[in-house]
Automatic annotation (TrEMBL):
Gene source species: Eiseniibacteriota bacterium
Protein name: Ribosomal RNA small subunit methyltransferase A
Catalytic activity: adenosine(1518)/adenosine(1519) in 16S rRNA + 4 S-adenosyl-L-methionine = N(6)-dimethyladenosine(1518)/N(6)-dimethyladenosine(1519) in 16S rRNA + 4 S-adenosyl-L-homocysteine + 4 H(+)
One cellular component term from this protein's GO annotations in UniProt: cytosol
Family affiliation: Belongs to the class I-like SAM-binding methyltransferase superfamily. rRNA adenine N(6)-methyltransferase family. RsmA subfamily.
GO MF annotation list: 16S rRNA (adenine(1518)-N(6)/adenine(1519)-N(6))-dimethyltransferase activity; RNA binding
Keyword Flavoprotein: no
C-alpha cells in the first residue's frame, strides 16, 4: 500500500463555520468545489505530514464528537491553520494548541489573539511533558484532540499511554486501516501487538469515517475519528508489564507459529519448560499467538514471572514501537 501522509486542518477563508450536516460518506470529491482557500502563508510541509481539512461541516462534526464540557482543559495536537481550534476553545475552560511548525504557530497566535482561553504552544507534542504541565497549571486530567500525521500515530499513542495518569481521553483522526487494527478481534488479520497494547491502556470507540476527499492535498487513504478513554488502572494484573509486552511482540513477530516456538525464542527457554509454563497458564502451547486474547497473554506473563522463567533484560513495551509490526 502506498504510504499516506498525515492530515492537518485548514481554516475556512473567512473564519465562519457553517455547521452543515452532509453525511461523511457523501463528502464531495474535490476541495476546489467547496469555495475554501488556504491562507497565503499555509503551505503543507511534507516533512511534517501536512494535509489540510477543507470541509467546514466536518470540523463542526469532529468537535461535536469530542463531547467536551466547560470544565475541561484540552490539548490540541497539531492545530495547523486552526480549523478546529476556535470551535474547541468555545467548548472548554482552556485550550493548549500544540503546533510544531513555527510558521503555523505564528499564524495561530495572530488569528486567535482575541480568544483568551487559547494558548498556542510551539513545540513537538512527542517531547511535551503532560505530567509536568498538568502539575504546573493545576490540571487533573487533560482531554486531548488531534488530527495527527499517519507516520507518527504510534509514537503519539505511546506518549499518551505513558502519561495516561493525567489524560482523561483522546479523540484522534487516524488512518482508517490503523483504526481497524486498534479495534480488531483475536484471530483476524488486523489483530496484532498494537491492538493489545491499546486495549491494555484504553477503551476504544470508533466515531466517524472521513473520506480522503475532505483534505488538501488529498491523501491516498481514508481516515477515521476514534475516541480513546484512558484506563486509570490496567484491566488485568500482571507482575511485569515489560514481560507481558515482550511475550506479545514475540508472538506477533512470528504470528503463524505456535506458542511453543514463539515462547522458546522470546524467553530463551527449552520446549519442555515452555510446555510446563503453558499448562500452568491454562493456554494450549499448540495455539498461535494471533488467536490469544489479552487475558490469555496476561496468564502467560504471570506464569513466566511465577516460574522466574524470563531470560533477558528490561524490554520497554513499545521500543521499538509495537504498532508497525503485527
Amino acid at each position: 500500500m502506498a504510504r499516506a501522509r498525515g492530515r492537518r486542518l485548514l481554516g475556512p477563508a473567512h473564519g465562519a463555520y457553517t455547521g452543515g450536516h452532509a453525511p461523511l460518506a457523501e463528502a464531495p470529491g474535490d476541495a476546489q468545489g467547496l469555495g475554501l482557500r488556504a491562507p497565503a502563508r499555509c503551505r503543507g510541509r511534507k516533512r511534517f505530514g501536512q494535509n489540510f481539512l477543507v470541509r467546514e461541516d466536518l470540523a463542526q462534526r469532529i468537535v461535536d464528537q469530542c463531547h467536551l464540557s466547560p470544565d475541561d482543559v484540552a490539548i490540541e495536537i497539531g492545530p495547523g491553520a486552526g480549523a478546529l481550534t476556535p470551535l474547541l476553545a468555545s467548548r472548554v475552560h482552556r485550550l493548549l494548541a500544540v503546533e510544531k511548525d513555527a510558521g503555523l504557530a505564528a499564524l495561530l497566535r495572530e488569528q486567535l489573539a482575541e480568544i483568551a482561553q487559547v494558548e498556542v504552544v510551539e513545540a513537538d507534542f512527542l517531547t511535551l511533558d503532560l505530567v509536568e504541565r498538568a502539575s504546573a497549571e493545576g490540571v487533573r486530567r487533560w482531554v486531548v484532540v488531534g488530527n495527527i500525521p499517519y507516520n507518527i500515530t504510534t509514537p503519539i499513542l505511546e506518549r499518551l499511554f505513558a502519561q495516561r495518569a493525567v489524560v482523561k481521553s483522546a479523540v484522534l483522526l487516524v488512518q482508517r486501516e490503523y483504526a481497524a487494527r486498534l479495534g480488531a478481534a483475536a484471530g483476524t488479520p488486523e489483530y496484532g501487538a498494537l491492538t493489545l497494547f491499546a486495549r491494555y491502556h484504553a477503551l476504544l470507540e470508533p466515531l466517524l469515517t472521513v473520506r480522503a476527499s475532505a483534505f488538501w492535498p488529498r491523501p491516498q487513504v481514508d481516515s477515521m475519528l476514534v475516541r480513546l478513554f484512558m484506563r486509570e488502572q490496567p484491566p488485568l494484573e500482571v507482575p511485569d508489564e515489560a514481560l507481558l509486552f515482550r511475550i506479545i511482540r514475540g508472538s506477533f513477530q512470528m504470528r503463524r507459529k505456535q506458542l511453543l516456538n514463539t515462547l522458546e525464542a522470546t524467553l530463551a527457554l527449552p520446549k519442555p519448560k515452555i510446555e510446563r509454563l503453558c499448562r500452568h497458564a491454562r493456554v494450549d502451547a499448540q495455539r498461535r499467538g494471533e488467536t490469544l486474547t489479552l487475558e490469555e497473554f496476561a496468564r502467560l506473563a504471570r506464569a513466566a514471572a511465577d516460574y522466574g522463567e524470563h531470560a533477558g533484560g528490561p524490554h520497554p513495551c513499545c521500543t521499538p514501537p509495537c504498532g508497525p509490526r503485527r
